Amino acid sequence: MDHLETLMPQWLAWVREIQALCQTGLAFSTTEYDTRRYHRLMEIGAEIAARYSGMPSPDLLGNFLAQPGYATPKIDVRGAIVHEGRILLVQERTDRRWCMPGGWADVGELPSLMVAREVREESGFLVTPVKVIGVFDANREGRPLEFYHAFKVVFLCTLDGGEARASDETMAVDFFSFDDLPLLSSNRTNERHLAEVRAHLADPARPAAFD
């Protein structure tokens, strides 16, 4: 059994596949008949999602239809900053749990600049990305209750300056011992990610992990 199947409800796997197939189909459909069929199938996907998630079907359909073009995974970037043996974490306002600073990738920005910007905006610290620690399938770990597939890219960064400062998205910023971590926001940062950070610190020649 695929590891994803042990973590994700079957209905969510179906909805994600239906949405992706319809999104791609609508992007390339050449007849009104095909467009109507894909739209109706998207409605069915939204109805399934509404049935199991409790979210309104019209809202879900609008969200599904708002995704343009060929369906591809979203990208989440995270910065791993370790100072004097302690890792930088931020407390998210959404769930009051802790994670490495980062967020969804923006179109048109270099990955290295993106993670440095996210760290600065969420924590107040200035950093330089120096290495990719790993590329992880974000839907195959933690609690992948998201309607869209995502990859997570974790960068090891050096600390250049700045000072701890919360933001609109974060309510606290601090450094923690790897052996005494706060409650993690597991969709954003989990023990596997942190284990890779520690392994790369212990072995600078370690290759990037990937799923």
Number of strands: 8
Pairing-aware structural class of the strands and helices? alpha+beta
CATH class category label of the largest domain:
Alpha Beta
Largest sheet: 8 strands, mixed
Radius of gyration, taken over Cα atoms and rounded to an integer in Å:
19 Å
Question: Domains counted in the coordinates: how many?
Answer: 2
Q: Report the CATH architecture of the largest domain.
A: Alpha-Beta Complex
**Intertermini distance:** 16 Å
Helicity, in percent?
25-40%
Low-confidence stretches: 1-6
Note the total helix count: 6
Quick structural gist:
The protein has 211 residues and is α+β, with helices and mostly antiparallel strands.
What are the salient characteristics of this protein?
211 residues, alpha+beta, Nucleoside Triphosphate Pyrophosphohydrolase, 2 domains, eight-stranded mixed beta sheet, elongated, disordered N terminus
Protein described:
This protein has 211 residues and is of the alpha+beta class. Helices cover 38% and strands 27% of the residues. It has six helices and eight strands. Strands 1, 2, 3, 4, 5, 6, 7 and 8 form an eight-stranded mixed β-sheet that branches. The chain is elongated and about 60 Å long. The relative contact order is 0.17.
